[in-house]
Amino acid sequence: MLVFSIKLIDLLNSTFLSFRTFVTLQSKLLKKIMDNINVEKWLEILKTYASEYGFKVLGAILIWIVGSFIIKK
């Protein structure tokens, strides 16, 4: 029973260490990716599309609401 317990503890420790290593590598990779992302560029693109299509989408939603209200009456 003692040998089984020691082997189980060794297995759990090795699994934990490999998981911890995986998490460390994953966080380093994520940090590298996030360092390379230019947030200002993406915000500028988002602003461009929002200003171009925002009013069209809001108009379509408004027409849909008014149309569904008229159909129900």
List keywords for this structure.
single chain, 73 residues, mainly alpha, 2 helices
Number of domains: 2
Distance between the termini: 78 Å
Residue windows where pLDDT falls under 50 for at least 5 positions: none
Rounded Rg? 28 Å
Please count the beta strands (DSSP E, at least 2 residues each): 0
Order of helices and strands: HH
| Average pLDDT, all residues | 77
Q: Which sheet architecture does the biggest sheet show?
A: none
The best one-word shape is elongated
Report the sheet-strand fraction: under 5%
Structural class: mainly alpha
Helix content: over 70%
Written description of the protein model:
It is a single chain. 0% of the residues are buried. The protein has two domains: 37 residues; 36 residues. Helices cover 95% and strands 0% of the residues. The chain is elongated, with a radius of gyration of 28 Å. The protein contains two helices and no strands. The chain is mainly alpha-helical and 73 residues long.
Secondary-structure map:
Blueprint: H1 2-36, H2 39-72
Question: Could you give a short description of this structure?
Answer:
With 73 residues, the chain is an all-alpha fold. The chain has helices at 2-36, 39-72.
